[in-house]
Amino acid sequence: MTGAPAGTPALVGAEEIARLLTPAAAAEAVAGVLRDGFDPESAPPRVNLPVAAGELLLMPAASGAYAGVKIAGVAPANPAHGLPRITGGYLLLDGATLLPLALLDGAALTTLRTPAVSAVALAHLAAPDASRLVLFGAGPQAYGHLRAALAVAEVKTVTVVARAPEACAALVAYARTLGVDACAGTAADVRDADLVICCTTAREPLFDGRLVADGATVVAVGSHEPDARETDSALVRRSAVYVESRAAALREAGDLLIPLNEGVIGPGRIAGTLAELVHGRVAVPFDRPRLFKSVGMAWEDLAVAAALHRARGNPTGQRDIVR
After folding, report:
1. Is the CB of residue 9 less than 8 Å from the CB of residue 320?
2. Would the pTM count as exceeding 0.90?
3. Given the DSSP bridges, would you call strands 157-161 and 66-74 parallel, antiparallel or unpaired?
4. How many Cβ atoms from other residues are within 10 Å of residue 280's Cβ?
5. How many other β-carbons are positioned within 10 Å of the β-carbon of residue 4?
6. Buried-most residue among 163, 201, 258, 309 (CB within 10 A)?
7. What is the DSSP string of 123-161?
8. Contact 145, 115 (CB under 8 A)
9. How do residues 105-135 score in pLDDT, each as one tens digit?
10. How remote is the C-alpha of 98 from its chain's centroid?
11. Bridge partners of 231?
12. Taking every pair of C-alpha atoms in the chain, what is the biggest distance, in angstroms?
């Protein structure tokens, strides 16, 4: 059978993405790029274009044998119509020739890579005996973060806090199939948590940061907007704060920018970055909360997309031609 023209990318759908990489493998792909010396501070900023349905995001990256770009749509009204809030696609390119290698489902890639980034942070920040998780949200990111947390921590109990009772109940039921004791709860349950993961569309704090235990780790991934946040100033003031990139966080992370603008913290309040954690260059205090604030960066998409390409049986630099 005659192949498609050289440079025709393979189509990689959501089901194949979910099947190809485990949460642990996706986390290893992210950590591996950092261990190989990539500096997220050098990454280009996200291009954000407001449109009638929400926003259009353009996220290019290049590192090593690959380059790529994600075009993502964020459409807040979609879920009410039974449609995904996050849409789009990812084009993976050969780094040497810039010929297309694969076109991946952008929403599925994001659902895999965001928890992978959080898993890398949790592997370094969570207490060794962390077992009680409070999970805010019940959408695709909540499912992905539950699996990621189980990959890096000995989670025994999960409390789901979500606005929609049916969605909350579904996630609780799913968690039980993974062998953990799960239930629905309220924001006050953070007082008993070892791990708190926030993956919502909230624009205001989800809980009182004064309730979080000194030894707990909090991960917030829901927003990349400077005027939206999931955590409050009280938590940020108490915590050792870690981010993917200082530049990106101080450009986009409302969880940090709002307390900064309030004068609650100073610009030097960030204790470390994901790269510094991976390389062991920063200390991790366990006498206070640890907060990891993620905004999502293009290099992370590229790391996971490249790992997916290799998992399909393609060595570095080899085109995957559709036949």
Report:
1. yes
2. yes
3. unpaired
4. 9
5. 11
6. 309
7. HHHS-TT--EEEEE--SHHHHHHHHHHHHHS---EEEEE
8. yes
9. 999 999 999 999 999 999 999 999 999 999 9
10. 27
11. none
12. 66
